[in-house]
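Hey, I was hoping to borrow your eyes for a little while. A protein chain has come my way and I'm curious about its shape. Take your time with it, there's no hurry, and the full record follows here:
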Amino acid sequence: MTELNPEQEKRLKRIQRSRRKNAEELEDLYQQGEIETKDSSFFSGLAGDYQDLGVFAIYDGDIGAAQTSFNEATAYYQRSSDKDPIPLHGPRQRMQGMYTALLAGEESTLVDIAESMQRLAAEEDCDPDDQWADRYFLGWCLSGAVLGTVNDAALAGLETVNDEKPGAHAHYGQAVLSTARGIRDDEPAAIQSGIESMVTFHEQDMDADNVVKQIMSVEATALAILGRAKGYSPAISSEFIPMDLVEASAASFHL
């Protein structure tokens, strides 16, 4: 894990307090009926707050608190996906929900989200040149990797979409593609390559002022947990992947 300098630590503490205050106040208002909303972005915003709180807990060395926050994030990503009026928007929230469920070590929730993504893929067609194609094929591939049902059409669609992606974003798609293909074909090297590609994406996409991303890569850590959960032992060496969390969460899965 990256060690933050004193100024970055001060910024982290400010953001941590702000995220916690925002999440708790919004939850209270919503539960008391003061906020009535069907807007999926309300729930994805809360999910993002809890995801960040999970990352902050990792920096504080509290794995249990991190898993609890990631579990809260997962629940809100699910609700956000359910509330979205446009079905093809939903894969993005499902993707994030699968990542945070992996981080939380929550197998039943992870499987529920993956199955809902598979149902969406069965019900909704999407061409690689459609507006929402990237999230659709990413979600389809990742959910297939979780469930052990990686689809050739999902891989082909993601490969086509990813060919058009510039720079760092191509590494993101390649990470999911390699991981899904490695799990399907029982190729540990492909899974390893997928995790490494996600770390590369994180390093290239990271803003130096973003203290959350300085701490860890949510996506690369989640893929590392998925690889472990599937019975593989990817050799991981990255300051952006907290191994204590990988080991604790992977032990909860029997995929």
In short: The chain has one domain: 6-250. Residues 6-31 form the longest helix (26 residues).
